[in-house]
Structure formats: structure tokens, C-alpha cells
Amino acid sequence: MRRALPFLLMLAAVPAMAAAASRTALGIFDGWGAFRDPAAPRCYAIAAPAATIGTPQLKAYASVGYWPKSRIRGQFYVRLSKARRAGGELRLTIGSRRFILTGNGAHGWASDARMDAAIIAAIRSAPSMSVESVSTSGGSIADTYRLRGAATAIDAAALGCARPG
């Protein structure tokens, strides 16, 4: 099974690779990946949740992005596994830190650059993070992410957009 794992992972990644042919992998670090998209140009670290409550309705992910032309660095974004109730609070918990994100539907992000920086600092020192809210149907949304490899992926994304070309 150990020998088959890389092959199985490659097969699972083929549809995603076809859809994102223009992006370049900067590295895979445990459960986090870092990519560069020269067409935008942008770089980002990204991960899927390790656990989700209930049946996901959307492909959830968390990312930290860099857009050098727009001078945006270290912007946190999360897509939830389900759309959330309008006006419902969106809570991000990283270790002992709690953040109230802004956003709409299944999308959430930090309210400003200072919060982005605080979120990234918390990601660097915690083993996991969770995003919680209430879905449009009234059920719970809870997506949990492992953070092992996140700091390295974030650094790789930052470096990927720091160099020209």
C-alpha cells in the first residue's frame, strides 16, 4: 500500500491538474500546497480540511494568497463546506486565538491586513484551526484544518511571488 500511495495521489490529482494547467507547484508540505499562477500573477498556500461536520456541499479550502501587482501579501481566505446563513457569525479558531471573519455565502476572509497578519502568525504556532458558522439550513458548519506544513507552504508562496517572472 505504501508503494501505491504516490500513484493513487497522482491519479486523484489529475482532474485538478488539468483544470489548473497554468499554475506551477512550488511544493507540497504535509497537507498544504504552494502554487504560483503566472497568468494572474499570484501565489498561494492552500489546504483542504482534514475534517468536516456533516456532508460537504462545496469543496472547502483555506488559503493564504499573494498578488504582487496589487501589492497584496499574506491575505487569508476560506471557502466553507456549506453556504452559511446570511448575517451568521463566521468564527476562525487557531489554538487559543479567535477571529471573527467577514464574507458572504460560503466565503470568508479577514477584515483587514492587520487581522491577516495575526491569523498567519497564529497559523505558524498552532497544530490546527477550525472555521465554524451556521448553514443556510440551520445546521452547523465546522471545517477543521491541520496546520503541519502550513508555515512552509506560506513561505514558499511568498517567495514564489517575490522573484520576478
Summarize the structure in short.
This protein is of the alpha+beta class and 165 residues long.
Label this structure with key terms:
Immunoglobulin-like; globular; disordered N terminus; alpha+beta; eleven-stranded antiparallel beta sheet; about 160 residues; 3 helices
Largest sheet: 11 strands, antiparallel
Question: Would you give the CATH topology?
Answer: Immunoglobulin-like
Q: Please mark out the parts with pLDDT under 50 across 5 or more consecutive residues, or reply none.
A: 1-20
| Beta content | 35-45%
Biggest β-sheet: strands ordered side by side in the sheet: 1-2-3-5-6-9-8-7-10-11-4
Which structural class should the secondary elements be placed in? Answer: alpha+beta
| Fraction in helix | 10-25%
Report the principal-axis shape.
Answer: globular
Number of domains: 1
Q: Superfamily at the CATH H level?
A: Invasion associated locus B (IalB) protein
Radius of gyration: 16 Å
Could you tell me the number of beta strands?
Answer: 11
Please report the distance between the alpha carbons of the first and last residues. Answer: 40 Å
